[in-house]
Amino acid sequence: MKCPFCNEDNTRVVDSRPADDNCSIRRRRMCDACGKRFTTYEKVETIPLVVIKKDRSREEYDRSKIEAGVMRACYKRPVPVQKIHELVDAVETDLFNHEEREIESKEIGEIVMDKLKNLEAVAYVRFASVYREFKDVNTFMDELKKILN
Residue 45: what pLDDT? Predict the structure, then answer.
């Protein structure tokens, strides 16, 4: 493992323990050259998941896209970052437990919205307004009515 500070190859593991999600290992490392410490995470490699986009093109699944969308939806809302990471972990678990190795982006969006609805109502509506491409105030109001009922 290369040191992120000095780019040397000589680093050693100082401490290893399960990460908070219990699905990865957190390792504290120390560089033998510069003496600085840094953290790495080790995860089990999974079978790649392919996302079928609206235009029918395909691309490899990218967790950071879901994370970025949820972060934008939760912007200036009282949602701790830890809760956002837990939500993305839950979405990812659902996706990888899916029988197929290809999944439509529409289905991913529905899973995210379902989880966001339980986390924070305003974030849910923000995400839904972008995801479902609300055209006018009436569609926005229809979605709000669904939440209130």
Answer: 67
**Structure token pair of residue 100:** 């197929």
Query: In the predicted model, is pLDDT for residue 3 greater than 90?
Result: yes
DSSP annotation of 14 reads E
Cα(136)–Cα(139) distance, integer angstroms: 6
Beta partners for 59?
51
Element (H, E) at 126: helix 121-131
**In the chain, beta strands by DSSP E:** 11-18, 24-31, 37-43, 50-52, 58-60, 102-104
- The pLDDT value given to residue 7: 93
- Mean pLDDT score across all residues of the chain: 88
What dihedral angle (degrees, nearest 10) is formed by the CA atoms of 70, 75, 76, 79?
A: 20
